[in-house]
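Notes continue from the previous slide.

Worked example: a multi-chain complex. Inputs as given:
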Amino acid sequence: MTPDGRRRYPVYVPQPSRTWWLKSGPYRRFAAREITSMFAAIVSGLLLAFLFALSSGPGSYQDFLRLLETPGMAAFSAVILAALLYHTATWFRLTTHIVVIRLGQRAVPRSALLAALLGAWIAVSAAVAYFHIWF
Amino acid sequence: MRRGNPPDPPSLGDVLDWSEASEVRPGQRRPRPRGPQARLEAMAWGLFSAGGFVAAVLLPIHVAILGIAFAAGWLPDKALSYSRILHLARNPLTKVYLLAVISLPLYHWAHRFRFAIHHQFGIHLRRLVAVACYGAAVAGTGLAVWVLLRI
């Protein structure tokens, strides 16, 4: 900077193309990870619609269940589930990079942390399934 | 692919100016960003990570049950019956759980989509995009509260 606050040299502003995120494998995986958040928001919307149908009485609740049974909706759910599982995988993986748990002088190895996360995930899913289906 | 001229290398004087400006002397803390802007930013990141956690741990089983197992006929007959689900959803603990499960992933989406618009779509109306994304998440939260109170 010069004393009057102006720069002495031109600033380089890189101008990537609009499709830079399709250009290589890591970029595509990054973009896919970002897009999974959209499916999470769609699930929020679906749960909201489910509860809205539930609060509107038995007739609209049955209508919503019939919608869930259509093959198109089941196929869409499969796509959503695949996206969510990708999100789960990337989220757990990055958690093992961020969270460091110390035991005495050593850090818990990343593989142990990942195993603990997966175990907790399965346990929580089983609890949700129990309340949702059998409770 | 290069557009425009390559940058001139910064002069030695510039480099020294920068390092002096960012220097942290012993016993002195690096100044933290303060003010309402920084507080909102911190809150957005907190909600983002909470939402990412909920989306990773809790959402897959819900989609597996409602979206796939039910359509495939794997659930017991009465599992999704109106009276049983209504009874379950009227429990206050379930309502708190459902509010978290519905609203937190919306903040996760808002935060990621905000930067996706910036990075992937190349639209740089940063303030407008941020207000629209977080506003949608807040509206979804309000809607969830309204629906849960209606049940």
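Summary box: Chain B touches chain A through 66 residues (CB under 8 Å). The two ends of chain B are 58 Å apart (CA to CA).
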